[in-house]
Design brief:
With 210 residues, this protein is mostly helical. It has a domain at 65-207: Tetracycline Repressor, domain 2 (Orthogonal Bundle). The chain is 74% helix and 0% strand. The chain has ten helices and no strands. The protein has helices at 10-26, 33-40, 45-51, 54-83, 88-105, 110-122, 130-150, 156-175, 177-183, 193-207. The protein is globular.
């Protein structure tokens, strides 16, 4: 079962935070339970007690990242639907900006959070649990018709692919931002994450045009 991090305190929270840090630094496969409990100041049996298994702890880490983002995506979409006539840009902002807010409010540093997100997208060795997949399906089920309304002529399949490509752009940008700085020979420097996100939205907005 996926554990929500809301109202979690004490050893359980310490384990989630320690695992988040270590998974971001080293990857999901190589971090041991003993490393996690050592950083958290807990005993090895506490992982089984609180999460059932190491995999359960992994799910709790991912849920802590994604659940608030998905909830905020749905809340913002509801606001757009009440207002009416949402544009592609409105929808992209509602879809992407909650992730920026989560990065900024995370106890992890921005760099570590981005690394962890990249590992969740690219390195995780097994499927998301049903509860998290249900969240993603709900978000997709709400956003696809909204994008279709904003882009008359696009099929649901077209929109799903464009959302997928757009998320890939954001994920790659966040995960490999340092590489861009290195290969640009000084043309790209440090900038606020909000500025980078605006660049991503500009690009993805154009990608929704027929």
């Amino acid at each position: 079962m996926v554990a929500s991090s809301r109202n979690i305190t004490g050893t359980k929270l310490a384990l989630i935070e320690a695992a988040s840090t270590l998974f971001a630094q080293k990857g999901f496969e190589v971090v041991s339970v003993r490393e996690i409990t050592g950083l958290a100041g807990a005993n090895v049996a506490s992982v089984k007690y609180h999460f059932g298994s190491r995999d359960g702890l992994m799910d709790a880490v991912v849920s802590r990242m994604t659940t608030p983002v998905n909830e905020e995506r749905l809340r913002r979409l509801e606001e757009l639907e009440e207002r009416g006539n949402a544009t592609v840009r409105d929808l992209l902002r509602a879809f992407f900006e909650p992730l920026l807010s989560q990065i900024q409010s995370s106890p992890l540093s921005e760099k570590l959070f981005v690394k962890l997100m990249g590992r969740v997208v690219g390195d995780r060795p097994y499927e998301f649990p049903d509860e998290l997949m249900g969240q993603f399906r709900e978000v997709a089920g709400r956003y696809v018709p909204a994008f279709m309304a904003a882009c008359p002529g696009l099929s649901s399949e077209d929109v799903v692919w464009r959302i997928h490509f757009s998320f890939g752009v954001l994920s790659n940008t966040l995960s490999h931002g340092e590489l861009v700085k290195k290969i640009s020979a000084g043309k790209v420097g440090d900038e606020p994450l909000a500025t980078t996100l605006k660049r991503v939205i500009d690009f993805c907005e154009a990608g929704f045009q027929k």
